[in-house]
């Protein structure tokens, strides 16, 4: 039973695994078939009766795959819904730097073209600004 508690945080393939499954070939606990393939040298033996260990209540239970119903998607001890869509890790590219919401010095406002005149103080008496608009 000590292998059960080691697999609670071990799976890197399914991030939201709700149960550990006892493999019928070596009788060790794994969160997914990929974890079994990585750590064992033999193939995973297929069976219709599976032994699960709920990660919420830490209790074990068996399910027969030939008689699987909608109510069997929940742990019989704590009603934890263990058949859910798997969340797998995804590769992501991120820019290193400070949070732009806190420090926007690295950002440039592309909406207004910065010119020499807009950077300096412009007076209302400057004839070059809007000279073409005068009538």
Which structural traits does this protein have?
alpha+beta; 4-stranded antiparallel β-sheet; 3 helices; disordered N terminus; Mito_Tim_assembly_helper; metal-binding; zinc-finger; Znf_CHY_sf
Verbal overview:
The protein is built from three helices and four strands; from the N terminus they run αββαββα. By secondary structure, it is of the alpha+beta class. It has a four-stranded antiparallel sheet with strand order 2-1-3-4. It is elongated.
Indicate the topology.
Elements: H1 2-6, E1 19-22, E2 29-30, H2 33-39, E3 49-54, E4 60-64, H3 116-119
Antiparallel strand pairs: 1-2, 1-3, 3-4
Q: Tell me the span between the first and last alpha carbons.
A: 91 Å
Strand count, sense and barrel status of the largest sheet are: 4 strands, antiparallel
Q: What structural category arises from helix and sheet content?
A: alpha+beta
Sum up the overall morphology in one term: elongated
List how many beta strands DSSP finds. 4
Element string (H = helix, E = strand)? HEEHEEH
Query: What fraction strand?
Result: 5-15%
**Helical amount:** 10-25%
Low-confidence stretches: 1-8
Number of helices: 3
* Strand line-up of the largest beta sheet: 2-1-3-4
Q: Could you report the average pLDDT, rounded to the nearest whole number?
A: 75
Rounded Rg: 31 Å
């Amino acid at each position: 039973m000590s292998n059960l508690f080691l697999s609670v945080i071990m799976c890197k393939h399914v991030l939201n695994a709700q149960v550990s499954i006892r493999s019928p070939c070596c009788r060790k606990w794994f969160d997914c078939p990929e974890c079994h393939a990585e750590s064992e040298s033999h193939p995973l033996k297929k069976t219709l009766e599976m032994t699960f260990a709920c990660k919420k209540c830490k209790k074990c239970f068996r399910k027969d795959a030939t008689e699987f119903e909608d109510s069997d998607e929940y742990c019989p001890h704590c009603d934890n819904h263990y058949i859910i869509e798997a969340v797998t890790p995804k590769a992501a590219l991120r820019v290193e730097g400070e949070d732009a919401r806190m420090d926007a010095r690295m950002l440039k406002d592309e909406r207004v073209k910065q010119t020499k005149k807009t950077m300096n103080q412009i007076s209302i008496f400057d004839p070059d600004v809007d000279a073409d608009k005068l009538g």
